[in-house]
Amino acid sequence: MTEVFNTPSKVIITCNRRLSPYLQEEVKSLGFEIKRAFNTGVELFLSVNDCIKLNLNLRTASQVLYEVESFRANDPKELYDNLVKIAWEDIIPFDGYFSVTSTVHNETITTPLFANVKVKDAIVDRIKDKKGVRPDSGPDYHKCVIHLHWMEERAEIFLDTSGETLAKHGYRKHPGKAPMLEALATSTIMATKWDGKSPFINPMCGSGTLAIEAALLAQKRMPGLQRMNYSFMHFIGYDEEVFFEERRQIKDIADKTILPQIVASDISDQAIEIAKMNARTAGVEHLITFEICDFADTTVPQEPGVIMFNPEYGERLGTHSKLEVTYKRIGDFLKQDCKGYKGYVFTGNPELAKKIGLKASRRFEFFNGKLDCRLLQYELYDGSKEN
């Protein structure tokens, strides 16, 4: 019997490129020891029950993968022969459903889809041989998900305990134009070291992701409160009491008494409507003051805090000459109206960033999709720098 829920094994938590430092921070804060960190994730040694805690708490992660086996495989036949030896009948219900994902770099494989089929065939053949029934499989990630990591002649097979990605936090039913992924938004806020109590101002808020993530962070409301289905629930040995106990704990951690001033503005009434709907779904609409106005008319409380812009980059939306004026106006607004604040501009366009006309005190590297981006930090001194 393969008892994965209580048996520690290698666990890989993946994240988008450049989010690893923020993921490490989160994992350590949950009390777990990191064995190894790399550009797109971390490695730990845990059971699937531990993975339940990770799935419910992590904001910056993508998937939580639990290793079932690793072996040498030079070609698809060797891959199949090793996989069919695993006791899949103890892991996946014979009347269940599973899907396969993979990362493959092996010269005998021209498409990962072929490797996925080999994995699927091995699992189905093994369960049919042992149970006389074949489980269903397909492309949906709503039940058991198996992940193959195959580099050259080294293959690892994992249970993807997450299923649908953790990088989306479940409240954004209306994405709006060019939205920022929730895991990325959280990471940028973590980079600012915002205390969760002082004001957080987000002009040009679009669909509201930054303001919503700030509200969720401030009140310690974990992503698991938004989600009731994970891949781990569909593997043999799942004890729902473990899940509900963890869910009770994250409910208890949430602190509704923390009420920072969060202001989100946008010139588009449609964008504000979408942002309000998303905030309502996330349960934080009451924490955010929404304003329909030009960014320069955004309410900036006197008490210093963090002000963050995520303007268009000129990649997908808008045109350059118009954006040059916008970036210059952002710089003027930060200089004149946000004294005492820490100012941040997230952009994928270094040429436009120059138009802000302020010297960045720090530059944090991120990717937004495949686009190389920077979060630029500006110290907006009240009076002279010495004061």
Automatic annotation (TrEMBL):
Keywords: Methyltransferase, RNA-binding, Transferase. One of its GO terms (molecular function) is rRNA (guanine-N7-)-methyltransferase activity. Residues 50-161 form the THUMP domain. It comes from the Bacteria. Pfam families: RlmL_1st, THUMP, UPF0020. This is Class I SAM-dependent RNA methyltransferase. It comes from Sphingobacterium alkalisoli.
